[in-house]
Amino acid sequence: MLNWQYSNYSKINPDAGKHFPFAEPRKGQLETISEILEAIRKGYKYIILEAGTGTGKSAIAAGLANMMDSSYILTITKQLQDQYLRDFPDFKLVKGRSNFLCSNYHEDNVCQSCDEGKCIVEGEDCKYSIKNQNPPTCPYYAQKYGALNSKNVIANYHYMFLELNYVEDFTRRDLMICDEAHNLESMLMSQLKLEFSRNELKEYIKYDLNDDIINDLNDASFNDWLVFIDDIKTSYIKELERIENINRPALLEKISALKRKINDCTRFTANIAHDPESWIVDYDEEFEVLEFKPVKVDNYAVSTLLDYADVCLFMSATILDWKLFAKWLGIPEDDIYAIRRKTPFDNTRNPIIVSDMYNLSKYHIKANAPGTIKLIRDILDNHKGEKGIIHTVSTQCMYYIMDNIKDARLMAHSTKNRSEVLEEFKKSSDARVLVSPSMDEGVDLPGDECRFQIIYKIPYPDLGSKQVKTRMMMDSEWYDYKTSLRLVQTHGRGMRFEDDYCKTYFIDNRLKNYTLTSKYIPQDFKALVKSRTDAQVDKLIARGEEYISEGDYEKAIYHFKKLVREDIDDYRIYLNLSRAYHELDLFEDEVNIILMYLNNHPEDLKHFTGSLSILDSMGYFDLNQINF
Fold it and tell me: Does 403 map to a domain?
């Protein structure tokens, strides 16, 4: 297990303050920038910064970018792109063609996005392009031209990956900041894969991707894959030559798609040659798509992305293990300078309550799922006036909960309307509860937008995916790491600023053991885990109080001491335990159990003053010694 300590670097480089984007830096921001500058001075190209929520990573990134001659800031989510642009308006945001309408087609009264514009579909030298600059009134090229001439550029990974590797208008810069860097490996896997839709093959080139072909490809070598792909590419080229000079607006989308797919085939052939043993072929039966996908990217990350900057800064709240992070990106450990900064937030304001009732592994979920419905209803009842979210992990579990809890508060989404439903949830003033398998990261739910959340089961990567299963067999550490990463990310959705608070519930009883034993879960996170829900604790305390009322004090002591051993943190347990001790004249035990609790919870002294006063009068305790 990696023992990665939090940084105690305290020196402040004067230049860090001069170029910081805000008048008042938060605690630790200038020190972090200064430590990064020191690492650069020592010759490190790759710097990892794990900094918890609230440390102000975006401002740290902006401050560093301001000190360089040129920079890229890369993100995955649109939300984070917009945040950078809002906070740092001097930076330039560049987006892909699909976000803009073609000016050339507009002249012909045709509404078409720039990714299917005349310069793409017809190959003409667009009079609005950067090359003509007279002036660049094409909305896509206008913003791209502005970014090319800007010192600091904000973009998403997908756009910049294509630009750097294939378009080549953007070139190497001084600094590349990879935000949300824990997703970098997954992003590269997605960028490198090649897809063939059964419906599109039939529509575009009348090719029947039948089951026999799919089965043959599953058993074939990568050389056979290349023959198959080259045959498809040849058919694409022939079809494009047949239709590209036909002046029919209805063909524009097809022409554009064929050009993209020809380029995709060419890129794939070049990529797979670097590491043919790290690829698999898979068929998605639900969407009827044949996919050629990499299982790992350690032979691609540097050459396809990281080499386009002199220095790369990887930022995330959840790196967890920097050595594994470096290994999976193909970066030698000696080339890495790793920094870890703690969140300034009080994480105890987002405790984790664990149920010990239901095992939701694939072997037990069918039998135990009905019992979870009552447990979820109890949690919903305890948060009647509050908004929350249920993280179902899988779509199947989402449908099960929605079908079995008929509550108007609940709202779910499909893959198509996720963003719209999330926005509706955030804006609602009612105590709505969002039920989703995919809100575990990139979602900001501050304050009253989320006061509780339920994590239904352990978020293991899907072993139904051939890519995931193959990777796990190659590297079991990766599977555990990915599970821990998603769990920590999910927990962080509900607490977004210093005075914020949220309560997280684990339904799957395996979650507690997993959290406490996984070597990748941070110790700060493990400390938040508590057993049982509020409703369960109430019942357990009531049972012990019945023993006291019946005069069975020894049974009451046994019962409440068991709850203490289970780390159930509730003053009523200790108060009742002290009562039982008192009835059996075990006054020293009574004093010890009260002091044991108050040493950790001095704020609860008011509940024990009566007992302590009696013990004081009996000579077993001195009230004057109270210094909590």
Answer: yes
Question: What pLDDT does 516 receive?
Answer: 84
pLDDT of residue 488: 96
Look up tokens 């339920």; give the residue: 454
Write down the pTM of the prediction: 0.82
Domain that holds residue 451: 347-531
Residue-wise pLDDT for 31-68, tens only, equals 999 999 999 999 999 999 999 999 999 999 999 999 99
Does one domain contain both 185 and 71?
yes
Whether 484 and 603 map to the same domain: the answer is no
Residue 274 is predicted with a pLDDT of 86
**β-strand pairing of 388-391 with 452-455:** parallel
Contact 178, 326 (CB under 8 A): no
pLDDT of residue 56: 94
Do residues 215 and 242 both lie within one domain? yes
- Which CATH number is 609's domain given? 1.25.40.10
* Run of H or E residues at 599: none
- Amino acid type, 96: G
Q: Which of 472, 497, 531 is the last residue of a domain?
A: 531
What local confidence, expressed as pLDDT, does residue 387 receive? 98
Across 474-488, average pLDDT: 94
pLDDT-derived band at 135, boundaries 50, 70, 90: low
User: For residue 603, what pLDDT band results from cuts at 50, 70 and 90?
Assistant: low
Q: What pLDDT does residue 94 have?
A: 96
Distance CA 141, CA 148 (A): 10
Query: DSSP of 480-516, one letter per residue?
Result: HHHHHHHHHHHHGGG--STT---EEEEEETHHHHHHH
Q: State the total domains in the chain.
A: 4
Report if residue 5 sits inside a domain.
no
Closest CA to 95 of 188, 151, 149, 162: 162
CA distances to 120, 231, 253, 339 from 238, in Å? 18, 11, 17, 54
Q: At CA 562, angle to CA 558 and CA 564, rounded to 5?
A: 120
Question: Side by side, which strands form the sheet with 194-197?
Answer: 194-197, 289-294, 279-284
Co-location of 246 and 274 in the same domain: yes
N-terminal to C-terminal alpha carbon distance within the chain:
37
Mind giving me the DSSP string for 252-306? Answer: HHHHHHHHHHHHHHHHHHHHHTT-GGGEEEEEETTTTEEEEEES--TTTHHHHTG
Q: Report d(CA 199, CA 66) in Å as an integer.
A: 48
